[in-house]
Amino acid sequence: MSIMKSVNDFLAILANKLKGGGEKAIEKQKEKGKHTARERVEDLLLDRGSFLEIDLFVEHSVKDFGMDRKELAGDGVITGFGKVDDKPVAVFAQDFTVAGGSLGRAHSKKIVKVMDGSAEAGIPLIGINDSGGARIQEGVESLCGYGEIFFRNTRLSGVVPQISVILGPCAGGAVYSPALTDFVFVVDKISHMFITGPQVIKTVLGEEVSQEELGGAMTHAAITGNAHFYARSEPEAFETLKKLLSFLPPNSSRNPPVSKPIPPDSPLGDDVIPDNRRRAYCVKEIIRGIVDGSDFLEVHEHYARNIVVGFARLSGRSIGIVANQPRVLAGVLDVNASDKAARFIRFCDSFNIPLLTMVDTPGYLPGVDQEHAGVIRHGAKILYAYSEATVPKLTLIMRKAYGGAYIAMCSRHLGADFVASWPCGEIAVMGPEGAANIIFRKEIEAAEDQEACRQEKVREYEEKFANPYVAAKKGYIDTIIRSSETRDTLIKALSVVKQSRTGRSHGNMPL
Ligand code: HXC
After folding, report:
1. Where are the domains of the chain?
2. Which of 22, 117, 338, 385 has the fewest beta carbons under 10 Å from its own?
3. Is the pLDDT assigned to residue 3 strictly greater than 90?
4. Ligand 1 pocket, 102 CB below 6 A?
5. pLDDT value of position 393
6. Among this protein's residues, is 147 annotated catalytic?
7. Annotated catalytic residue 121
8. Long-range CB contacts for residues 191-199, cutoff 8 Å, separation at least 24
9. Which atom from ligand 1 is nearest to the alpha carbon of 28?
10. Is residue 173 within 6 Å of ligand 1 at its C-beta?
11. pLDDT-derived band of residue 276, with 50, 70 and 90 as boundaries?
């Protein structure tokens, strides 16, 4: 028997391939609090024993600058298919212990193969990034590899869910693959993303900044918005990722899975909105009072907190929720909130997930900063995303729905299928105080007691305009309900409005 055909020799070759970058490199990886690529795929992400690895035997194709002296196990990336909660996914995980997980030609070809596999099978793609970037020794070959990956990220957008988990460095142009995917996970003290690192910034601009401050996990979760999910540890990130997948269909031609309906832990009563119109409250508590099992998976929790987006279920069906958050900046719409909401709406529309919009906002944020930051261009994205969306769209007006924000937050005029308001809904061109000061200015100025007159006019305006009845009389809102009836009403509405049209209509990239 030839030596290469003996099972024992095969097992020896296999063991060599499975050892990644070797003991020393693995030890270094562990010292940083990181798992190995194989542990991440086999132990933390996939159902036990479900991993079907491919291309373990691929060898790096460019042997120059001393690379021929090194054995690069799997060329620094592990690729294949497996199952999460019994549902198939495609996966790649860069192995930092092998040449710093750097991306060379064979490495990129392996990633491209599972990306194509995910498209053909119609299953989600999960990428685990832990890499020093383009493999310097392979020059233009590594750049080609990145280009081919970006191309596929874009073509797959809106076709299969794409999720990136950043578990180490992700620098230079490498950051654009995660940025093109639907959801990015980061982990405290482990993830670092930037176009140019602290050293280059110091050389070029003279600015000093730490790696953590520049591109650490919380920086991307809270400041840049590049990350959608922040976790304190690798296992926590993968647990959240699995939960996220449970809301999603495998591809845009299918509907999301349906679960057994569970009532909320503490259903809404009739006193959820404070009597005082100006008082803030937390919209997440209201969401939990409506959705199945009070279970809400928030997306972008730390970014643009004046708007809340995330996934939940209504009577077992996945829904995407977009809600103004009165507790932060009174729930105004600004540049970042507009981008956050628009991207989420586009994702839900791509993957047949009905939308529930919960409205309590005084409108778009005024000010020079916002105007110069492009609030016109960014604010328009919400209008575009809602108007474009063909999934079922339900809207609940909780309190303020003033001006442009009334229109933008999925009004009937942007194609909402069902609009309900609570009795305390206020639908008007602008808030009572501002409006009274403008339209009754002369009367207020002429009054003996100007403050008393102003208060009187505010009340008059509220009665006449800032209520849900004017819009309900005209049929712009379909019904006025008590807050305690919200869940039942939304479930009924969801079952009778038009159903989702499956099939890709657009990608997820913000406009
Ligand atoms: C080849 C690389 C590499 C790279 C790291 N290594 N990055 N090999 N190409 N890009 C190798 C190291 O030589 C080392 O090999 C091993 O990986 C581990 O790296 P260390 O430096 O020892 O690790 P650490 O101290 O943890 O530092 C990690 C790091 C650093 C911060 C990522 O390695 C680094 O700065 N790397 C270069 C990053 C970079 O500039 N990449 C190019 C970006 S430009 P040995 O054999 O010693 O173990 C780019 C363009 C893409 O990516 C454009 C796409 C459009």
Report:
1. 3-247, 256-429+467-511, 432-465
2. 22
3. no
4. yes
5. 97
6. no
7. no
8. 191/166, 191/167, 191/216, 191/217, 191/220, 191/227, 192/166, 192/168, 192/216, 193/166, 193/220, 193/226, 195/171, 196/171, 196/172, 197/171
9. 26
10. yes
11. confident
